[in-house]
Automatic annotation (TrEMBL):
Name this polypeptide is given: ABC transporter ATP-binding protein
KW Translocase (keyword) present: no
InterPro entries noted in UniProt: AAA+_ATPase (IPR003593), ABC_transporter-like_ATP-bd (IPR003439), ABC_Transporter_VariousFunc (IPR051782), P-loop_NTPase (IPR027417)
Organism: Nakamurella flava
PANTHER family membership: ABC TRANSPORTER ATP-BINDING PROTEIN ALBC-RELATED
Pfam family, one: ABC_tran
Feature: compositional bias, Basic residues: 1-15
Keywords, ordered alphabetically: ATP-binding, Nucleotide-binding, Transport
Residues covered by the ABC transporter domain: 40-264
Length: 335
């Protein structure tokens, strides 16, 4: 298990200078965009669909330049947050700002490019026609880069979109958003339905762009192992609320996973996010416990380690599940 210090994410400084010539060429697209500071900020953001609150009390800050994973179970509000950021729907309450500018629903946002889960493309268009469509419908468009990405994908401009594989279509759809040179790229489940090779191509393309230009990326996914290598920032949504948010290294450092005798687990009380007991052994995720600090609540009979991202996310999801079950039981007792 690597400690927090050993985690070095690909999207960070190490690869920033990877392709200086390309970075230089791209600087013209940085105009009018503050890539320092905060990329996305929400205050009391909420969205209701009829009687369902898809998102509530959402106060978030995603710094510029990070690659941020938006995770959470089905129906947690991930797509809703992304659509609010893209200005495709209006908030019921609160506000959302992209690089300091309040998002006004329906107004174009040249700094942001959003790719929805459906990856909308016209099947009867050739790739050349698809790129032409991109050029005419976007305020900012880098045709040279679009063609470069299509060539990298091994595709021809005459290829018909309707005859492409799911993975190839994903790369055309990604080209359409990247050629807009966004300062903030928002991808809703970009790896869904992709085989491992196609997934890796999509990841590499996004990382290269982020490394060369400092682009901020927010992407949703259900597969933690997928985002673990790719992202340096995490937002966990459950039931329309932000459950965890921050740099992944810091989140891991604020938790410890402990394994020890279940007879002693009362000593951990107050720190446990979630515990699982099998036989006489308990494994628990402790919050707010870094290094020696965890030793103050767990005796020498407990093993203490830095959790994986998977362990942290799962513990919070299980805690929510347990709380929901407890609420249901309370209702039944009262009824
Ligand atoms: N257009 C809509 N009309 C009614 N309810 C909606 C609409 N869009 C979303 N919802 C509801 O809002 C909640 C959040 O949905 P959302 O799609 O944002 O979740 P999600 O985290 O993206 O889920 P998934 O991982 O399944 O894509 C759900 O309860 C969903 O049913």
């Amino acid at each position: 298990m690597g400690g927090p210090g050993s985690r070095r994410r690909v999207a960070t400084g190490r690869h920033r200078g990877a392709d200086q010539s390309r970075a230089g060429r791209r600087r013209k697209w940085d105009v009018m965009t503050d890539r320092e500071g905060v990329a996305l900020e929400t205050a009391g953001l909420a969205r209701r669909f009829r009687r369902t609150w898809a998102l509530r009390d959402c106060d978030l800050r995603i710094p510029a330049g990070v690659t941020c994973a938006l995770v959470g179970p089905n129906g947690a509000g991930k797509s809703t947050l992304m659509m609010l950021a893209a200005g495709l729907i209006a908030p019921t309450a609160g506000s959302i700002r992209i690089f300091g500018r309040t998002v006004e629903p329906g107004r174009p946002q040249p700094d942001l490019a959003f790719l929805s889960q459906q990856r909308p493309l016209f099947p009867h268009f050739s790739i050349a026609e698809t790129l032409r469509f991109g050029r005419t419908t976007n305020l900012r468009w880098d045709q040279e880069y679009a063609q470069e990405l299509i060539a990298q994908a091994g595709l021809g401009l005459d290829d018909r979109v309707g005859r492409l594989s799911v993975g190839q279509r994903a790369r055309v759809a990604l080209t359409l958003v990247l050629a807009r040179r966004p300062a903030l790229l928002v991808l809703d489940e970009p790896f869904a339905a992709l085989d491992p090779l196609a997934r890796s191509h999509v990841m590499t393309t996004v990382l290269r762009e982020a490394a060369a230009t400092g682009m901020t990326t927010v992407l949703s996914s259900h597969v933690i192992s997928e985002i673990d290598d790719l992202c340096d920032h995490l937002v966990l949504l459950t039931g329309g609320r932000v459950r965890l948010s921050g740099p992944i290294d810091e989140l891991l450092d604020r938790h410890r996973v402990v394994t020890g005798p279940s007879a002693e687990q009362d000593a951990l009380r107050g720190r446990v996010v979630h515990a699982t007991t099998v036989g006489r052994q308990t494994t628990a995720l402790l919050a707010g416990a870094a290094g020696e600090d965890a030793r103050s609540v767990a005796s020498d009979r407990w093993g203490i380690g830095v959790p994986t991202l998977d362990e942290v996310v799962l513990a919070y999801l299980r805690q929510d599940e347990d709380n929901a079950q407890r609420d249901r039981d309370d209702w039944e007792v009262r009824a």
